[in-house]
Write a structure and sequence with these properties.
This protein has helices at 3-6, 13-25, 31-39, 71-82, 99-105, 118-130, 167-171, and strands spanning 60-63, 66-68, 89-93, 110-115, 136-140, 153-158, 173-184, 189-196, 201-209. It has 219 residues and is α/β, with parallel strands linked by helices. The chain has a single domain, classed as Rossmann fold (3-Layer(aba) Sandwich). Helix 2 (13-25) packs antiparallel against helix 3 (31-39). The protein binds S-adenosyl-L-homocysteine. Residues 62, 66-69, 93-94, 96-97, 99-100, 114-117, 120, 142-144, 159-160, 212, 214-215 line the site of S-adenosyl-L-homocysteine.
Protein backbone atom coordinates (compact mmCIF):
# COMPACT_ATOMS: atom_id res chain seq x y z
CA UNK A 1 0.00 0.00 0.00
CA UNK A 2 1.38 3.43 -0.79
CA UNK A 3 1.84 6.04 1.89
CA UNK A 4 -1.14 8.19 0.87
CA UNK A 5 -3.45 5.26 1.37
CA UNK A 6 -1.63 3.85 4.39
CA UNK A 7 -1.75 7.18 6.20
CA UNK A 8 0.57 8.74 8.75
CA UNK A 9 0.04 10.61 12.03
CA UNK A 10 -3.58 11.78 12.17
CA UNK A 11 -4.46 9.44 9.27
CA UNK A 12 -2.60 6.37 10.56
CA UNK A 13 -3.91 2.99 11.59
CA UNK A 14 -3.46 4.06 15.22
CA UNK A 15 -5.97 6.86 14.65
CA UNK A 16 -8.37 4.41 12.98
CA UNK A 17 -8.07 2.13 16.01
CA UNK A 18 -9.24 4.97 18.23
CA UNK A 19 -12.15 5.67 15.87
CA UNK A 20 -13.22 2.03 16.00
CA UNK A 21 -12.92 1.94 19.80
CA UNK A 22 -15.29 4.94 19.99
CA UNK A 23 -17.78 3.34 17.64
CA UNK A 24 -17.71 0.20 19.75
CA UNK A 25 -18.39 2.28 22.88
CA UNK A 26 -21.38 3.79 21.10
CA UNK A 27 -22.87 0.32 20.85
CA UNK A 28 -21.91 -1.15 17.47
CA UNK A 29 -21.21 -4.85 18.00
CA UNK A 30 -20.66 -6.37 14.55
CA UNK A 31 -16.95 -7.26 14.53
CA UNK A 32 -16.83 -7.66 10.76
CA UNK A 33 -18.07 -4.10 10.33
CA UNK A 34 -15.62 -2.79 12.93
CA UNK A 35 -12.70 -4.68 11.36
CA UNK A 36 -13.57 -3.37 7.93
CA UNK A 37 -13.63 0.20 9.20
CA UNK A 38 -10.28 -0.37 10.87
CA UNK A 39 -8.82 -1.40 7.51
CA UNK A 40 -10.46 1.26 5.33
CA UNK A 41 -8.54 4.53 4.91
CA UNK A 42 -11.33 7.06 5.44
CA UNK A 43 -8.92 9.99 4.92
CA UNK A 44 -8.69 9.38 1.16
CA UNK A 45 -12.44 9.99 0.87
CA UNK A 46 -12.37 13.50 2.34
CA UNK A 47 -10.86 16.64 0.86
CA UNK A 48 -7.13 17.03 1.52
CA UNK A 49 -7.75 19.98 3.85
CA UNK A 50 -9.87 17.81 6.14
CA UNK A 51 -7.67 14.69 6.11
CA UNK A 52 -6.46 15.28 9.66
CA UNK A 53 -10.10 15.25 10.85
CA UNK A 54 -11.17 12.24 8.80
CA UNK A 55 -11.36 9.99 11.88
CA UNK A 56 -13.21 12.43 14.13
CA UNK A 57 -16.72 11.32 14.94
CA UNK A 58 -18.34 13.92 12.75
CA UNK A 59 -19.64 14.42 9.24
CA UNK A 60 -17.32 16.51 7.04
CA UNK A 61 -17.90 18.54 3.86
CA UNK A 62 -17.15 16.80 0.56
CA UNK A 63 -18.17 19.70 -1.70
CA UNK A 64 -21.43 20.46 -3.54
CA UNK A 65 -23.15 21.07 -0.19
CA UNK A 66 -22.84 17.39 0.72
CA UNK A 67 -21.15 15.61 3.61
CA UNK A 68 -19.42 12.32 4.28
CA UNK A 69 -21.46 10.57 6.98
CA UNK A 70 -20.17 10.38 10.54
CA UNK A 71 -18.21 7.12 11.15
CA UNK A 72 -20.67 5.93 13.81
CA UNK A 73 -23.61 6.26 11.40
CA UNK A 74 -21.77 4.35 8.66
CA UNK A 75 -21.09 1.55 11.16
CA UNK A 76 -24.62 1.53 12.53
CA UNK A 77 -26.34 1.47 9.14
CA UNK A 78 -24.02 -1.25 7.90
CA UNK A 79 -24.66 -3.31 11.02
CA UNK A 80 -28.42 -2.94 10.58
CA UNK A 81 -28.15 -4.00 6.96
CA UNK A 82 -26.13 -7.12 7.79
CA UNK A 83 -27.87 -8.16 11.00
CA UNK A 84 -30.17 -10.87 9.66
CA UNK A 85 -28.45 -12.98 7.04
CA UNK A 86 -25.68 -12.15 4.60
CA UNK A 87 -26.85 -9.96 1.74
CA UNK A 88 -25.13 -10.66 -1.59
CA UNK A 89 -26.46 -7.80 -3.67
CA UNK A 90 -26.86 -4.37 -2.14
CA UNK A 91 -28.02 -1.05 -3.58
CA UNK A 92 -26.69 2.18 -2.11
CA UNK A 93 -28.50 5.43 -2.86
CA UNK A 94 -26.19 8.44 -2.40
CA UNK A 95 -22.60 7.39 -3.15
CA UNK A 96 -21.25 10.76 -1.96
CA UNK A 97 -17.60 10.33 -1.05
CA UNK A 98 -17.76 6.57 -1.65
CA UNK A 99 -16.67 5.72 1.90
CA UNK A 100 -19.82 3.82 2.83
CA UNK A 101 -19.58 2.16 -0.58
CA UNK A 102 -16.03 1.00 0.17
CA UNK A 103 -17.05 -0.43 3.55
CA UNK A 104 -19.96 -2.29 1.97
CA UNK A 105 -17.87 -3.59 -0.91
CA UNK A 106 -15.68 -5.44 1.57
CA UNK A 107 -18.66 -7.06 3.28
CA UNK A 108 -21.03 -8.09 0.49
CA UNK A 109 -20.55 -9.68 -2.90
CA UNK A 110 -21.86 -6.91 -5.17
CA UNK A 111 -22.60 -3.26 -4.50
CA UNK A 112 -24.68 -1.09 -6.83
CA UNK A 113 -24.29 2.58 -5.95
CA UNK A 114 -26.10 5.56 -7.44
CA UNK A 115 -25.40 9.27 -7.04
CA UNK A 116 -27.11 12.35 -8.52
CA UNK A 117 -24.02 14.66 -8.50
CA UNK A 118 -21.67 13.60 -11.28
CA UNK A 119 -18.35 15.04 -10.01
CA UNK A 120 -18.87 13.33 -6.63
CA UNK A 121 -19.50 10.05 -8.36
CA UNK A 122 -16.31 10.42 -10.38
CA UNK A 123 -14.24 11.17 -7.30
CA UNK A 124 -15.73 8.21 -5.44
CA UNK A 125 -14.96 5.97 -8.40
CA UNK A 126 -11.28 6.93 -8.29
CA UNK A 127 -11.05 6.24 -4.55
CA UNK A 128 -12.57 2.77 -4.98
CA UNK A 129 -10.11 2.07 -7.80
CA UNK A 130 -7.23 3.17 -5.58
CA UNK A 131 -8.38 0.57 -3.04
CA UNK A 132 -8.76 -2.09 -5.77
CA UNK A 133 -12.43 -2.61 -4.93
CA UNK A 134 -13.85 -4.03 -8.13
CA UNK A 135 -17.24 -5.34 -7.03
CA UNK A 136 -19.01 -1.97 -7.27
CA UNK A 137 -21.21 -0.81 -10.17
CA UNK A 138 -22.01 2.89 -10.26
CA UNK A 139 -24.59 4.98 -12.01
CA UNK A 140 -25.23 8.72 -12.27
CA UNK A 141 -28.95 8.88 -11.62
CA UNK A 142 -31.74 9.92 -9.25
CA UNK A 143 -31.79 7.01 -6.81
CA UNK A 144 -35.37 7.69 -5.71
CA UNK A 145 -36.19 5.25 -8.51
CA UNK A 146 -33.67 2.65 -7.42
CA UNK A 147 -31.85 0.70 -10.13
CA UNK A 148 -34.47 -1.60 -11.52
CA UNK A 149 -32.25 -3.29 -14.07
CA UNK A 150 -30.24 -4.99 -11.30
CA UNK A 151 -32.97 -5.42 -8.70
CA UNK A 152 -34.42 -6.91 -6.66
CA UNK A 153 -31.81 -6.44 -3.95
CA UNK A 154 -31.08 -8.25 -0.67
CA UNK A 155 -30.43 -4.90 0.93
CA UNK A 156 -30.79 -1.19 0.15
CA UNK A 157 -29.11 1.60 2.07
CA UNK A 158 -30.03 5.24 1.54
CA UNK A 159 -27.67 7.94 2.79
CA UNK A 160 -29.85 11.00 2.16
CA UNK A 161 -33.26 11.54 3.76
CA UNK A 162 -36.59 11.32 1.92
CA UNK A 163 -39.77 12.42 3.71
CA UNK A 164 -41.24 8.95 3.10
CA UNK A 165 -39.57 5.69 2.04
CA UNK A 166 -39.55 5.78 -1.80
CA UNK A 167 -42.01 3.28 -3.26
CA UNK A 168 -39.61 2.10 -5.97
CA UNK A 169 -37.07 1.14 -3.32
CA UNK A 170 -39.63 -0.88 -1.38
CA UNK A 171 -40.54 -2.65 -4.61
CA UNK A 172 -36.91 -3.43 -5.44
CA UNK A 173 -36.39 -5.37 -2.19
CA UNK A 174 -36.38 -9.17 -2.30
CA UNK A 175 -38.60 -10.96 0.22
CA UNK A 176 -36.50 -11.00 3.39
CA UNK A 177 -34.56 -7.99 2.11
CA UNK A 178 -33.97 -4.89 4.24
CA UNK A 179 -34.04 -1.18 3.49
CA UNK A 180 -32.06 1.01 5.90
CA UNK A 181 -32.70 4.74 5.58
CA UNK A 182 -33.22 8.08 7.33
CA UNK A 183 -36.79 9.37 7.03
CA UNK A 184 -38.02 12.88 7.75
CA UNK A 185 -37.70 16.55 6.89
CA UNK A 186 -34.83 18.98 7.50
CA UNK A 187 -35.75 19.38 11.19
CA UNK A 188 -36.35 15.84 12.40
CA UNK A 189 -35.30 12.52 10.94
CA UNK A 190 -35.22 8.99 12.27
CA UNK A 191 -33.34 5.96 11.11
CA UNK A 192 -35.63 3.18 9.92
CA UNK A 193 -35.12 -0.42 8.93
CA UNK A 194 -37.85 -1.83 6.75
CA UNK A 195 -37.92 -5.60 6.20
CA UNK A 196 -39.92 -7.10 3.38
CA UNK A 197 -41.78 -10.35 3.97
CA UNK A 198 -43.69 -12.29 1.29
CA UNK A 199 -46.60 -9.87 1.33
CA UNK A 200 -45.86 -7.12 3.83
CA UNK A 201 -43.27 -4.70 5.20
CA UNK A 202 -42.17 -4.50 8.82
CA UNK A 203 -40.97 -1.04 9.88
CA UNK A 204 -38.57 -0.57 12.80
CA UNK A 205 -38.03 3.01 13.89
CA UNK A 206 -34.62 3.42 15.50
CA UNK A 207 -32.63 6.49 16.54
CA UNK A 208 -32.78 10.19 15.56
CA UNK A 209 -30.30 11.14 12.82
CA UNK A 210 -29.30 14.10 10.63
CA UNK A 211 -28.80 13.63 6.89
CA UNK A 212 -28.85 15.85 3.83
CA UNK A 213 -32.19 15.59 1.97
CA UNK A 214 -32.80 13.11 -0.83
CA UNK A 215 -33.28 15.39 -3.85
CA UNK A 216 -35.02 14.89 -7.18
CA UNK A 217 -33.24 14.70 -10.52
CA UNK A 218 -29.54 14.77 -11.32
CA UNK A 219 -26.85 17.49 -11.15
N1 LIG B 1 -22.60 7.77 2.10
C1 LIG B 1 -22.15 9.04 1.66
C2 LIG B 1 -23.17 10.10 2.03
C3 LIG B 1 -23.06 11.30 1.22
S1 LIG B 1 -24.30 12.50 1.57
C4 LIG B 1 -20.82 9.35 2.30
O1 LIG B 1 -20.62 8.96 3.45
O2 LIG B 1 -20.01 10.00 1.69
C5 LIG B 1 -25.65 11.92 0.60
C6 LIG B 1 -25.43 11.82 -0.87
O3 LIG B 1 -26.69 11.48 -1.45
C7 LIG B 1 -24.96 13.10 -1.55
O4 LIG B 1 -23.80 12.83 -2.29
C8 LIG B 1 -26.14 13.47 -2.46
O5 LIG B 1 -25.75 14.08 -3.67
C9 LIG B 1 -26.78 12.12 -2.70
N2 LIG B 1 -28.17 12.18 -3.12
C10 LIG B 1 -29.17 12.99 -2.67
N3 LIG B 1 -30.32 12.73 -3.30
C11 LIG B 1 -30.07 11.73 -4.18
C12 LIG B 1 -30.87 11.01 -5.13
N4 LIG B 1 -32.15 11.28 -5.32
N5 LIG B 1 -30.27 10.04 -5.86
C13 LIG B 1 -28.95 9.75 -5.70
N6 LIG B 1 -28.15 10.39 -4.82
C14 LIG B 1 -28.69 11.36 -4.06
Amino acid sequence: MNQRIQGIGMTSRRTRERMVARIREQGVRNELVLDTMLETPRHIFVEEAFASRAYDDTPLPIGFNQTISQPYIVARMTELLLEHGSPQKVLEVGTGSGYQTAVLAQLVKLVYSVERIYPLQQRARRCLQDLHLRNVRMKHTDGTWGWEEYGPFDGIIVTAAPEEPPKALLEQLKPGGVLVLPVGDARAQVLQRITRSENDYEVETLEPVIFVPLLDGVA
